[in-house]
Amino acid sequence: MFFMKKAWWKILTVIILYYVIFQGLLGTVPRQPILNETIRNLYFHVAMWPTMITLLLVSMVFAIRYLRSSNTVDDDKSAAFAKAGILFGILGCLSGSLWANYTWGDFWPNDPKLNGAAVGMLIYFAYLLLRSSFEDEQRRARISAVYNIFAFFVFIPLIYVLPRLTDSLHPGNGGNATFSSLDIDNNLRMVFYPACIGWILLGTWITSIRYRLNVIKRVQEERVAELSVNHHGAARAVND
Amino acid sequence: MHELRTLIWKEITLEWRQRYALSGMLLYVVSTVFVCYLSFNLKRNELTPIVWNTVFWIILLFTAVNAIAKSFIQERHSRLLYYYTLANPQAVIISKIIYNSLLMLVLAGIGFGFYVFVMGNPVADLTLYIAGIALGSIGFASVLTLVAGIASKAENSSMLMAVLSFPMILPMLLMNIRLAKNALDGLDRSVSLDEISTLLAIDLIVIALSYLLFPYLWRS
């Protein structure tokens, strides 16, 4: 992407995340009966999900681009974005589990959203497994791109449509009030939206580092292969 | 259309020639049902309608995964290459989906008959339940056909098939179990409209994706 190599968005990420963490730990939040201070987790738990969806969406877009272009670069990017998305998914599950323990009294209450997220993670773990089961790079890229697109379209109904059809403990589901009703003076919103942007940028940053590491690894492997070819060629010449 | 019909007919002929695969799958369903029956024999009265329903759908899930996994794995590489020169990929995937749906309908029908025969029949609204089974069979077939195609490209394909397909099929399975439970309790049919429309929507998405994505899978 065009702005990848620039520094300004990394500086922006750091500033936003500093703001989010300070506001998250020290800012004023509405006092609520059961939630109490745990409402601060909104910036860290809830913001993980838009981040994960965005990263997985970008991963799927690169998978589509790969199928159209057959350019390995697109596949590398797709895989790196998917991995970052999985990371944020796991973090979302963990932070949610912690929050659930203090508000709903159980680390893993039986809730369609939790189970949907867990199954979604399974789908993407299977993606990683699928990637690792191919030796040939072109083949791996093509088949995992197909699976990636398929997985995304199964994943979306799993976490957006299904929980809405059943009762859920989560706000905005099954007759529960949404968070916006607690947010009378828009204080939460002032931090929540920057938090989402900050985490998405952080995810992109992680992705770009992974991607560039991958490129370096590939170049090095090619160089080693080239060297060994030259070496063998030279040895053969001496023998002849 | 003509191509599609020929391809479906080819699948049926192939299946009929190697009847051991078909009879193997039938035996699989029947023996799984019988194993469940014997396992619950210790405490018959513990078999509540919910358990009855869930066990049936799990049997159906395993049957589907086993039956459809072979739809690509059984084909020899050279034969696939031969199809590649003759047919266009969209026709191949659609014919496979239609054929697998038919196969699943047969297997699920026989399985359900035998299941009711040994485990009893607590279903209140039988028509809706059977419609649910039909919807489920078609849905399973459409999701699993593309997954089988993906898994067949890798080396360790039977394990990969299970790992890839179980989480993929879960939304559909949950919807089906819920629809089946509504039928089981004999609730008013309008209650189940939500489930039916969601199932149809998922089916549609999955079939459209298979149609679009299979050509890329085919080429490798």
Overview of this structure, please?
The complex is a heterodimer of chains A (240) and B (220). Chain A has helices at 8-26, 48-69, 72-103, 112-132, 137-165, 187-239. With 240 residues, chain A is mainly α. Chain A has one domain. In chain A, helix 2 packs parallel to helix 6 (187-239) and helix 3 packs across helix 6 (187-239). Chain A starts with 7 loop residues before the first helix and ends with a helix. The model of chain A has no long low-confidence stretch (mean pLDDT 82). Chain B is an all-alpha fold and 220 residues long. Chain B is globular. The chains are: A mainly alpha (240), B mainly alpha (220).
Quick structural gist:
Chain B: This is Cytochrome C biogenesis protein CcmB. Chain A has 240 residues and is an all-alpha fold.
Tell me the quaternary state: heterodimer
Beta-strand residue percentage of chain A? under 5%
By DSSP (H or I, 4+ residues per run), the number of helices of chain B equals 8
Mean pLDDT of chain A: 82
Biggest sheet overview of chain B: none
The figure for the number of domains of chain A is 1
- Low-pLDDT stretches of chain A are none
Most extensive protein-chain contact, per-chain counts: A-B, 27 and 31 residues
Categorize the overall geometry of chain B: globular
SSE-based structural type of chain B: mainly alpha
Element-level helix/strand string of chain A: HHHHHH
Mean of residue pLDDT values of chain B: 85
Beta-sheet strand percentage of chain B? under 5%
Overall form of chain A: elongated
Through-space gap between termini of chain B: 25 Å
Radius of gyration of chain A: 22 Å
- The tally of beta strands of chain A, per DSSP, is 0
Structural class of chain A: mainly alpha
The SSE string of chain B, one letter per element, is HHHHHHHH
Total individual domains of chain B: 1
Report the end-to-end length of chain A measured between terminal Cα atoms. 50 Å
